[in-house]
Amino acid sequence: MTTYAIGDLQGCHAEFVELLETLGFDPRRDRLWLAGDLVNRGPGSLDCLREVEALGDAVLTVLGNHDLHLLAVARGGATLNRKDTLDAILAAPDRERLLDWLQSRPMLVRETLGGEDTLMTHAGLLPRWSPDQAERLAAEVEVMLSGEQAGGFLERMYGNAPDCWRDDLEGIDRLRAIVNVLTRMRFIDAEGRLDFAAKEGLDSAPAGFAPWFRYPRGDATRLVFGHWAALQGETPGSRVNACALDTGCVWGGSLTALDLERGERISVPSRRR
């Protein structure tokens, strides 16, 4: 059995199928970890959802910011953005089953793989959060998404405040802060304050901010993440055990899988210009 972690699909269904074929992936034997953002921007968001959902227990996927955006549009009253490619999902006859499945996905997965404590979220992990604390905080959002108040939460989920984690946060501020760390984080300052404006490469860091993986941690947990296509799968200057997976398939880059036991990377090129 081999466990592969794959970066953001973002509707790149043809490349996803090609990558699985290249890996020789067999759902009866192998497993997939998907780093979130299954949908949006690419042309095959509906096909990606259907493909991943059909893999059943062979796949573990965490929620990314684009996945949550789809849920917020469908069930929280949010509006589509000009660049969204979610119409096919919203009009699909099986939309409710697919949305139910997506909404039940976790914010974080963690296992021992290849002898390493391995944790995956969409965007990374705040340096001050231990793996155990991160699991507990992710579970708070998961419980909200699975309950009767999920629609109200999705309606109020968006926002840049608070931009710094505090243990005494409560209510929607607490849940929003957890979501922002796990699905939107790129640059932070020494206090753990998030910047939400800079989204490009490392040279776009605002003054006083650095990539979250350049701040040391108190553990050696392997942190697997997607979200940041401009990194192209690299984490230069990292002071933690971080594995970047988003290699920008939807932007003309590639779709990348990481063998979590052997550490090998396999990629297929994007079919988009």
UniProtKB/TrEMBL annotation:
Q: Which domain of life is it from?
A: Bacteria
What does the record give as EC number? 3.6.1.41
Q: Enzyme group, top EC level? A: hydrolase
MF annotations from Gene Ontology: bis(5'-nucleosyl)-tetraphosphatase (symmetrical) activity
The Calcineurin-like phosphoesterase domain, residue ranges? 1-162
The UniProt catalytic activity note for this protein reads: P(1),P(4)-bis(5'-adenosyl) tetraphosphate + H2O = 2 ADP + 2 H(+)
Listed Gene3D superfamilies? 3.60.21.10
Q: Which positions carry the signal peptide feature in this UniProt record?
A: none
UniProtKB keywords: Hydrolase
UniProt cross-references to InterPro entries, sorted A to Z: ApaH, Calcineurin-like_PHP, Metallo-depent_PP-like
Homology family: Belongs to the Ap4A hydrolase family.
> Which function does this protein serve?
Hydrolyzes diadenosine 5',5'''-P1,P4-tetraphosphate to yield ADP.
Q: What is this protein called?
A: bis(5'-nucleosyl)-tetraphosphatase (symmetrical)
Q: Which organism is it from?
A: Halomonas icarae
Q: What is the lineage of its organism?
A: Bacteria, Pseudomonadati, Pseudomonadota, Gammaproteobacteria, Oceanospirillales
